[in-house]
Amino acid sequence: MSVSLPPAFATPRVFAPVVTPFTAELGIDAPRFVAFCRWLVGQGAGLALFGTNSEANSLSLSERHALLDEVIEAGIDPARMLPGTGACALPDAIALTRHACEAGCAGALMLPPFFYQGVSDEGLFAYYADVIEAVGSDQFRVLLYHIPQFTGVPITHTLIERLIAAYPRTVVGIKDSSGDWANTSAMLEKFPGFAVFPASEALLGKALPLGAAGCISATANIQPHAIASLLNAATPDERAVWEGKVATVRLAVQAQPMIPALKHIVAHFANDAAWARVRPPLTAMDSGQAGALLRQLEALDFSMPSLATVAAVAV
């Protein structure tokens, strides 16, 4: 299979599911969000806005629309953006995907509808097909989002094959967040030319030689440059050095509740406590957890260069 990928997918890349800052009243803090997006882009990352670690499913439809517009109006290139547009309700998924398309985004990352369990591949095909047909663009690209441990709705290889056959210019890749290496490696083997993005940088050492397109990772929020450097390593020795660096940070962070941990790390390195806020039902890290995590990162000589300077503009 051969697909025509937009520039954002033409070479291995890292995308961050950008964490979302909130005000004291738990509204979206757009200035902080835009400043952080600028920092991520400056560190070599693309922006997977409204991903799992963005607390996307705690954001309303209108909030996602408005925030995407704010980021683009701030001058950040939408061609670097891969917003999440999957939703339980088909009309919401259509509205979000159409908006991303009209805004000029590189594509959309689409969860399956995730409330009903045990749905058939036929039903899932109809969901994706209805969105694609409603948007009606030959230029827009869709990446599927496989995270069955959260959704309860797996994206099977049979479904992938059918979607590629029906929409070869549109359905061009997948984010595999299953954590199942056997599934990731099987997709890389079965669908050559399909942009497979593992969700953990810890898998890149095995995935890149098999043709992985890059990485869409929670911890790309805090180590985008290191992951980009791994993806762009010129030699096996250079790749091995970066593999070790990114894997140790990943292990430290994923041992904690991921979203509160990411936001506390950003708060610390931005010197901005407001970043630690999460929307219910999530809760912020307690001081004991947070202190232990920061000490562990300090022992790894971890840093987020220039973040405090960039973030200060938004405060």
What features would you describe in this structure?
It holds the Pfam family DHDPS. This is Dihydrodipicolinate synthase family protein. Strand 1, helix 1 and strand 2 (45-47) form a beta-alpha-beta unit. The protein is built from 13 helices and 7 strands. The chain is globular and about 50 Å long. By secondary structure, the chain is an alpha/beta fold. It has a single domain (7-233), classed as Alpha-Beta Barrel (TIM Barrel), CATH 3.20.20. The protein has a 4-stranded parallel β-sheet with strand order 3-4-5-6. A 3-stranded parallel β-sheet has the order 2-1-7.
The percentage of residues in β strands lies in 5-15%
Give the SSE string.
EHEHHEHEHHEHEHEHHHHH
Side by side, the strands of the main sheet go 3-4-5-6
Q: Name the poorly predicted regions.
A: none
Tell me the number of helical segments per DSSP (H or I, 4 or more residues long): 13
Query: What CATH first level would be assigned?
Result: Alpha Beta
**Based on helices, strands and strand pairing, what is the structural class?**
alpha/beta
Shape: globular
What's the pLDDT, averaged over the residues?
Answer: 94
DSSP strand tally = 7
CATH fold-level label:
TIM Barrel
Give keywords:
9% strand, TIM Barrel, 315 residues, globular, 13 helices, four-stranded parallel sheet
Write the layout of secondary structure elements.
Elements lengths: L12 E4 L13 H13 L2 E3 L13 H13 L16 H13 L5 E3 L10 H15 L6 E5 L1 H4 L5 H10 L4 E6 L4 H10 L4 E4 L5 H4 L6 E3 L7 H8 L4 H19 L3 H13 L16 H13 L7 H6 L3
Parallel strand pairs: 1-2, 1-7, 3-4, 4-5, 5-6
Helix pairs in contact: 2-3, 3-4, 4-6, 9-10
